TrEMBL record:
Gene Ontology biological-process annotations: negative regulation of transcription by RNA polymerase II
Region spans: Disordered: 109-136
Major site of localization recorded for this protein: nucleus
InterPro entries, sorted: Corepressor-Demethylase (IPR051630), TPR-like_helical_dom_sf (IPR011990), TPR_rpt (IPR019734)
Cellular component per GO, a single term: nucleus
TPR repeat spans: 10-43
Example of a GO MF term: chromatin DNA binding
Protein name in the entry: Uncharacterized protein
Taxonomic path: Eukaryota, Fungi, Dikarya, Ascomycota, Saccharomycotina
Compositionally biased region (Low complexity): 110-136
Organism expressing this protein natively: Hanseniaspora valbyensis NRRL Y-1626
Protein's UniProt keywords contain Transmembrane: no
Amino acid sequence: NCINKDPNNANFWCSIGILYYAIGQFHDSLDAYSRAIRLNPYLWEVWYDLGVLYEACGDEEQQFKDAIDAFTQADRLRPGYAAIEYKLKQLSGQQVDLNKNLPKWLEPELPFQQTPQQNPLPQPQAQFPLEQPLVQ
């Protein structure tokens, strides 16, 4: 409904990209992020989310380069943000300083447990414990 009322709202398209990502529809997610960027290329959140998408689909070297490019653009728009710096260092193979004040959801020892307000992009590969095996 929001898109029908305001199809030129980049924030709406970013939210749609997040929803598509969450259900594993990566091509649709990419389309939504691309549209958000065309509408407003100055939203660092869209660039960050695009970087996470490329990283998640990173089975080719080009996708990792695209992820780095997206995180670099996010860093230009929001310099000094720990989550972006962490991703850039992680993808470029640099040693990550875990003593730096990183958001809790970036600490590798902790499971991913955040609300949408705290985390710009949910992880689609949630793992749920099974009470009984699926195949016996």
